[in-house]
Amino acid sequence: MRKDKLNSWNIRYFLVPFIILIILFSIVTYVIAENRIDERYKSFEEQSISMADSYSQALIYAHDAQSIITDMLNEKLIIVSKAISMIDNHDDIAVLVELAKELNLDEISLYNSDGEIIFSNYEDFIGWKVYEGHPIYDFMMSDDNTMVEDIRQDVISGVYKKYGYVKNEDGSFIQIGELAETVHNLIGQFEFQQLVNIIAGKDDIVYVTFLDNDFSVLGSSVDQTPETNLIDESFKERIENEDYSPERIEYEGQDLLQTSVPIYHDGEKNGTLNILWSTESVDKEIYRLILDGFIQISIVFVFMTGVLFYAYRKNKSNIEIAFYDKLTGLPNDEYLMEYLEELIADFDDKKAIMLINTKNFKTLNMTYGFSYGDFVITQIAKKIKGVLESDDRLFRFNADRFILVVNSYGSREELIQMSWRILEVFRNESMVTSEYQYVNVELGIVEIRDSDTTVDRLLQDATLALSYIDNNTNSPVRFYEEAMEDVVRREDRIEKSLRAIINETSEDSLYLCYQPKMDIKGKQIMGYEALARLHLQDIGNISPLEFIDIAERRQLIYDLGKIILKKSCEFLSRVNRSGFAEINVSVNISGMQILRKEFVDDVFEIANSYKVDPGYLEFEITESVLLENYEIINQKLKQIKEMGISISIDDFGTGFSSLARLKELNIDIVKIDKYFIDGIIEKDETKIITADIISMAHKMGLKVVAEGVEYQKQMDYLEKNHCDMIQGYFLSKPIEEQEAIENLGKFIL
Ligand code: C2E
Ligand code: CA
Ligand code: CA
User: Fold this and answer.
1) Rounded distance, CA 206 to CA 92, Å?
2) Which atom of ligand 1 is nearest to the CA of 707?
3) What is this structure's pTM?
4) What is residue 191's predicted lDDT score, i.e. its pLDDT?
5) Which of 517, 531, 622, 672 to mutate to test the pocket of ligand 1 (most atoms within 8 A of CB)?
6) Starting at the edge strand that comes first in sequence, how are the strands of the sheet with 393-398 ordered?
């Protein structure tokens, strides 16, 4: 089933470009944001490398400073030792204590050449003797005159100290000791540990470690060096391969950046400075970048949604205006054309269209006003929709016509059932208008069996089917049949011929035959009825029942009627010229002729121009015409009568007009329909009616003609019941003009 135009707009034309645009924009924003993030990280890394580099410089200087200070310290120890050895009374303990204090030394001890402490500012130490294996023993036995030791634990006191020694010529020697704490205080500020702590105090730096070439920690900003996690095998491998690129790591749930720089001293690498930076502030910045990007996308998203939604709504309403009926909301004729075109183009299975025509809608509009008419139309649309299958589509074709496209059905029977369902809707109480008047509909159905057709053809065929609905039969549903087209072609041929006759350019002929009417008492022809005949060269004779009907439907009857009236007058004047002054000529007149404004004037003019006495003219008007437009016609009849023309009511008895009404009508003669005359033969109760009609008409001062009299029996009955005139095959068939003239004056019975 084809999709609804409005619904298909939804997805196809808006959502797809919308999604594509959003995706494109998101990708672009994402790429830009990612680039900016990358750049930011890169600059962070570069910054951290260059900072690590500058910190490494401090370490190198510290290293230098440390060795200078150590050298100075060593020299101090030796100079002081030498100076003390030069003092005479170093066996006076009090002097030594004073001296140590003055020189800010912790210990001054004097050893004899056997390595025994003979004097010391620590009295307890006196008597202690060096033993083999002790560092002092090695010095004592060596040829060296001076020695400075690294900090070590004192054997006696257990305190850490740095010692310096100076040997005298006699082999005795002086030991000067400085507390490790004092030494540390002096060089401490240049120690790696200290520096590491200073570096670690900088913003964004979480850990700092200084490692020697064997990855042993020389200094670390935390007590518990995260060695195991940070200085793993892969790290070691990288450093050994001199790969100092920064690395992102996760440590204790924190995202960190690790930068490592080598520390060189005197052209030799003696360690690696490893700094761990917190990425928090960079992450925050990047988070802001992402947030910015997100906000941008959101703004664009909202904006684009707005713009596209507006465009969508605009388009939707444009479609609505172009393809939908405002009143009922149903797709309109424009849409129908497109829909049917597509349906024909990709025809697959049996499909059908139903033309639903509201018959009395115009009257309804006129009677109750247009807004009520609109209300009825919307009701109709709603009700029909209610009984449809899901894949059937209903269109408002024009004012009071709908087209239903049946997209799938099995058999014709199904279509019939569907049409009855629709008709049932109109029998429903809710379809009763305010004056209890039902809305009447009729349906023309076309079955589409292949793609060999056009939209125009389909609609024409449906209209044609509709025109075949016979108002006298009960079924308001008609299927299109191909034969209908032959009829249309024939009608077209007849119409063309009639037009040519009217324009006097025809090869075909329209002429009149005349059927006599006999006075029942005098047994004499008292008049003729003019009956039109049409002969087409290719088709042959056409019955007036057919061509008069076509002339009426195609608006040709007025001009055609004028020609017939002229021919009748010409005949009447010929009759008069033949010496028969009292012969009456009756002419059949259609309702549409009488209703024309200029009819009375035209009649007057024609009668005048043929110089005939209107008193010998008679107009036959069918009972049904009289009943349809009673007031106006009766008024016109009055004018005609005033001209002297007599009026007869034709086919009387078929139109159900009450006899009582005859009195009000401006008529002179009643022509009883053949149906009642046939009844005389069949001996049924209509016989009684026929006699009653005659007597009633007489009572109202009207003359009575019986038409279609074929048998003597009918004649007898009519004579007995005082009918005035008879007409029929019993007397004569319609005859040609010449014969009609010749028959005048003859007794034909
Ligand atoms: P109508 O006016 O009722 O004419 C009588 C029809 O019955 C004529 O048919 C006539 O030939 C036929 N008829 C007469 N007597 C008998 C009979 O005894 N038995 C049978 N079976 N038929 C008989 P026609 O000439 O074919 O005319 C048919 C109808 O065409 C007329 O019915 C009339 O309504 C219409 N018509 C004919 N000529 C004209 C015309 O000039 N103008 C108009 N408006 N209608 C015309
Ligand atoms: Ca007639
Ligand atoms: Ca008749």
Assistant:
1) 56
2) 15
3) 0.54
4) 67
5) 531
6) 393-398, 401-406, 351-358, 441-448, 477-479
